[in-house]
Amino acid sequence: MAVTEQVSISPEARPGALAGIRVLDLSRILGGPLAGQILGDHGADVLKVEPPQGDDTRAWGPPFKDGVASYYYGLNRNKRIQFLDLSAPEGQRRVRELMARADVVIENFKTGTMEKWGIGYEQMRNELPHLIWCRVTGFGTDGPLGALPGYDAAIQAMAGLMSINGEATGDPLRVGLPVVDMVTGMNAVIGVLLALHERARSGQGQLVDAALYDSGLSLLHPHAANWFMNGQVPQRTGNAHPNIYPYDVVRTGGAPIFLAVGNDRQFALLCQHIGLPELAQDARFATAGQRSVHRDALKPLLEQAFAGDDGQQLADALMAIGVPAAPVLDVQQALTHPHTRHRQMVVQMEDGSHGLGAPVKLSRTPAGYRHAPLTQGSDFLD
Questions:
Q1: How far is residue 175 from each of residues 160, 163, 293, measured CA to CA in Å?
Q2: Interval 363-382: pLDDT, tens
Q3: CATH class, range 5-220
Q4: Helix (H, G, I), strand (E, B), or coil: what is residue 27?
Q5: How many whole angstroms separate alpha carbon 172 and alpha carbon 166?
Q6: Superfamily for domain range 257-327
C-alpha cells in the first residue's frame, strides 16, 4: 500500500453529527451495509446482526484477510457485529429487544421473510412507534415486479443503464462498479436522515422505502430528460457526453486525457492554448449546440493538435487556465494521488486495514473511524 492517510479512531475523537443515534443493521451484501457504514462514519452507534455463517460478502474474494474478503471490509467499518439466527425463537426475541433500543432499523430481506418471523415492519410499528424502518429491496414490495429479488447488474439492464453505456458501435455494457447498489445505499441514508428530521417534530417513526429499481432509474439524467423532450431513444456514445462537446476522452502524444468543456468561454480558451483560435469562430464549433452536432469533425482536429503533447502536462496546463481536463488514471494512481491524501479519502483503521474515507466533510462534526470491521458487540452502547 502506498500513499495513505492515518486517521485516529480513539474514543476521545469528536462525536459525529449522528452521535446518540442507534442503528440496528440487519442487512447483507451491499446497499444496506453501505447505508449502515455511512451512518456509522458520522457517529451513529451501529450494531450489525449477521446470520451464524456471516454476511455472504465475507466470501466474495479474493483478496482475503484472515479468511474475510476485502469486499466485506469495504462496507462494514464503524459497526459492531453479533451473530443471531433470526429464524429461531431466541434470535427473534433478542432482535426485538434490540429494536426497542434502536432509532433506525435497516433490513433487506426478501419480502415476507421478517413477517414470517413475526418481526416485520407492520408487526412492529405499533409496538415501537418511534422506530424508523429502512427497507432496501430490489423492486419494492408491490406492483408488477414487487417482491421479486433484485441485483445490481439486473437493475442496470432493466433501468436502461446498460443501453447507454459502452462504445457506440459496441454492445450494451454494465457500469464497472455496483453503481445501483451504491446509490440505493446513499438514497437509503437520505431517507433515514429525512425521517429522523421529521421525527424530531412528530415523535413518530416511519418506513423508508429504498428500491434498487427506483435508484437505477434515477440515474438516467440527462438521457431521461432528453427522451421526455424529443422522444428519441438515447444511444451509446462511448466516453462522449450525449449533449455537450468536447466532453470526451481524446488522444495526445502520450496518455489520453478527458476534456470536459462545458461552455463557449472554456472552448475559446482551449483553442487559444493550442494555437487554433479560429476554431472558436468556426460556425460549426462557435456554440455548444453546434459543437455537439459537429463533434465528429471537431474531435480529429483536437487530437491532431494534441499529437505532440504529453497527456499529463497538457491536462495540467489546461486546468491552470480554466479548461476542465484530467489525465485518465487507473485505480492505483487515483488512490495514491497526493490530492487523495490531502482530502483524507484513504484511511487506515487500527487493525491495519485500509478503506475509502467519507466523501462528505462537516466542519464541526467530521466523520470518524472508531471501529474496524469485525469488531464484536452484543448490545448498543450506553
A1: 11, 10, 26
A2: 999 999 999 999 999 999 98
A3: alpha beta
A4: coil
A5: 6
A6: formyl-coa transferase, domain 3 (3.30.1540.10)
Annotated catalytic residue within 181, 296, 310, 316: 181
Name the segment(s) of the chain with CATH classification 3.40.50.10540: 5-220
Measure the CA–CA gap between 317 and 322, rounded to whole angstroms: 9
- 266 residue type, one letter: Q
What confidence tier does 13 reach under pLDDT thresholds 50, 70, 90?
Answer: low
Q: Is 58:50 a contact under the CB 8 Å cutoff?
A: no
Q: What is d(CA 179, CA 197) in angstroms, rounded to the nearest whole number? A: 27
Annotation says 330 is catalytic: no
- Please choose, from the candidates 142, 126, 107, the residue with its C-alpha nearest in 3D space to the C-alpha of residue 26: 107
Every domain of the chain with CATH number 3.30.1540.10 lies at 257-327
Kindly report, residue by residue over 204-256, the tens digit of the pLDDT: 999 999 999 999 999 999 999 999 999 999 999 999 999 999 999 999 999 99
